[in-house]
Task: structure prediction
Amino acid sequence: MNNAIYLQALTEDQKGNWEQAHDLIQDLSSPEAAWIHAYLHRKEGDLSNARYWYHRAGKPFPTVSLSEEWEIIYQTLDRR
Result:
C-alpha cells in the first residue's frame, strides 16, 4: 500500500485533527495502520484500546513520549 494515507493521517494528527487522522486509518487493516491507530488511542488516553492496536501492529507498548513516537512512525513510513 502507498504510505501517503499513513503520512496524511500523521500530518492531520500533528495539526491537531485527531478525528480526521483516526478517520483516515480506522478501516485499514495493515500493520502500519494498526501502529498509527495504536498511537492515536494512546494519545487519546484510551490505553487498553491502544494496547490492542499495538498488539495488532506487532509492536510493543512504547516507552518514549508521544512526540518521539510520532517521529519514529513518520520517519519509518516516510522511508518506505
